[in-house]
Each structure stands twice: as structure tokens, then as C-alpha cells.
């Protein structure tokens, strides 16, 4: 089993940080969307390497809507700092929800376009870093010296159980991606075990947190203007509102304790908003919408208790948990999985809806000294520490490749 977990703190790059390389990242998230694993890692790797960040193409529906509204699309290639380039596919290379032949054509055109831009920028023999399981055909496109597949979720289980055909396609593509990658990184124990079935060079590297950003926020007393009128205590959820959120649980919390304010901070990425809209009609529920990444800590620190009401999904490694801990806030989770369990007793794990409400009540009365322990735990799980671990694995594989022995000779022990 390959495990690559090591503690560290935010700070300057160390001698184990990958440097002087060209990286082409095929991401699942737009650079300008709420920051998650993709953007956090690449922004740090771009401090010592040249990075071409390739976000997903726009949907055909979005592209057509922008054309009808004559909305500006923005530049195809943006430069952020001296070594980070962000690619945004033009509208003709949009992705259809229903036409596989259309997507087959536009995806190959998109990869060809990225390849041309990369060569124009002087990228030669880059590291190809893929987050999307559907991009196994991209392997070999860029003359890359190393292929990394980064697994942050169980993509098949993200799909509805009724979408049998689509689930089969995703599973087939991910298996191919796992087998073709030189290195596989997985963010949770469950995902890591599954990856090892297909690729022995699979490593467990959990998510992290921008600890410096959160530490600085806790030192600032200012309260965001849209929070100042919300009555205390505030039970807060800060993150993207997705389909796996247990809205029924939130309704129960709001109804059982009208003296509590339920504050939701983040964009709603839901196909059906009807249940969320019903929740938001309650007088003690407040939805503050999307906030820029550098403002997130200010909202978390205003919460008396932070909650993770995610239902059923236990394969990933939630960024929210690290961010909550970095602000020292009490945390109540609904799902009991290894990624959460390793932080007990700093977090409370509820077994059902009634227990969830009880855990919130206990959290409102807990010992304040636990805040510093949570912040220390977050500091040990900074993104800088994660980049150093990833770098050590990558550098080891590159050096092995230079000597031409089997990659199985490389081993990073748990520390």
C-alpha cells in the first residue's frame, strides 16, 4: 500500500517542492469557480513551476445563451503572475449534455487547441496532471514525461442510480485512466483502496487548507455586513450547496430551534431548487450566496457551530472540514467516514437527525479551549504541506524514470 501523508505548515517552498517543471493541468473546475482542490494545488505549484491550467469547456446551453445575449466570453488564455496560465475554451468547443459524437469531436479539437498553445508557450515534455476521469484519451497528446491522475471523488456514485448507461461509461473511462497513469493520488482512504486495484502507484494524499489565510482572518475583528443583522447563535454551512446536502435535516433544525439562525454561505449548484427554496422561506434561515475565496474565513468565524449535513456520500475528503477547523469552530458532521473520524474528538459525528440536533446543542456549550486544538490540527494539514508530499512522490518517480528501473522500486513510507 502506498501512503503519502506528512504534516507541515504553510510557508515558503522547501527543498522537497517540485520546481522547474512544466505542468499541464486538465481540471474539472473553472479557475474562477469556488476554489477547491484543483485551484489550490495548482496555484501553489505555479510558484516554482510553469502551469497551464485547463478548465472544463462551457456547456452548449451556456454557450448558446451567452451568444444570444451577446455576452463577452473573456480571453482564451489568461496570465496570473509570472508562471500560471489559465485556458478557457472558446464557445465553439462547448460540451453537449446529450450528444456523444458532438463531444467526441469538440474534445479532440479542444485538446489540439491546448496543445498548440502549450507549444507556443514553450512547454516541452510536461507533466500531465488530470482531474477528470473522462480524459483518458488525453494521455499521449502533449508528449508528456509523466501522467498524474488525481482522484477527489467517486465519480460514478455522483451520478443518479437511474443513469445506468452513463455510469457504465464513466466507470470504463476511469478504469482506463487509472491504468494509464504513472501516478495516482487519492484524497481519501476509500478512494485510495479502490485506486490500488488498478494502479500500484496509488498514493493517499488528503485535501488541505490555506491555513495562512484563515489564521489572518481570525486575527481581524470585522464582521461581514450581511452577517451583522443575523441573530446569534449562528449555525453555519459554508460551501457549495450540492445535491447531497440533506435539506430535510436543515428544515428540522430550523423548525425545532427557531431561536437558532441557520446561515448558508455558498452558491447553489442544484438541478432542482424546490426543497432549498422551501427551506429559505423560513424566517431563521439565511442564504448569503457565493463569496470570493479570500472572504470565506470571515464568514466561518461568525458561526457558533459549523455543520456538514452531507448525506450518504462517504468517499471524498471535504474541504469544509479543514476550513472549519482552521477557524477553530465546533463542527458537527452527519457522515461517519475515515476522513472525518481521524479528527475526533475535535468534531462531533451524529448518527441521525435527532443526534445531529443534540450535537449542535452540545457544541454551543463546549469548552472554548478546543478552538486552539482545532487550529493546530488544521495547521498540520496545510496545502503547502500537501504540495511538499505530492512533490516528493513526483520527484521520486521522475528520478526513477531517468534511471529506467521499474517504478515499483520507489516507495514513500508513511510519516
What report would you give on this structure?
This protein is α/β, with parallel strands linked by helices. It folds into 2 domains: 22-208 and 382-409, Glycogen Phosphorylase B (Rossmann fold); 211-379, Rossmann fold. It has helices at 37-45, 60-68, 100-120, 164-180, 189-196, 211-218, 247-256, 274-280, 296-300, 319-326, 338-341, 353-363, 370-379, 383-403, and strands spanning 22-26, 50-54, 77-80, 84-87, 127-130, 146-151, 183-186, 202-204, 234-238, 261-265, 285-289, 305-308, 331-333, 348-349. Strands 3-4-2-1-5-6-7-8 form an 8-stranded mixed beta sheet, with helices on both faces. It has a 6-stranded parallel beta sheet with strand order 11-10-9-12-13-14, with helices on both faces.
Which descriptors would you attach to this protein?
2 domains; Rossmann fold; 14 strands; alpha/beta; eight-stranded mixed sheet; six-stranded parallel sheet; 415 residues; disordered C terminus; single chain
Summarize the structure.
The protein has 415 residues and is an alpha/beta fold. The chain has helices spanning 37-45, 60-68, 100-120, 164-180, 189-196, 211-218, 247-256, 274-280, 296-300, 319-326, 338-341, 353-363, 370-379, 383-403; strands at 22-26, 50-54, 77-80, 84-87, 127-130, 146-151, 183-186, 202-204, 234-238, 261-265, 285-289, 305-308, 331-333, 348-349. It has two domains: 22-208 and 382-409, Glycogen Phosphorylase B (Rossmann fold, 3-Layer(aba) Sandwich), CATH 3.40.50.2000; 211-379, Rossmann fold.
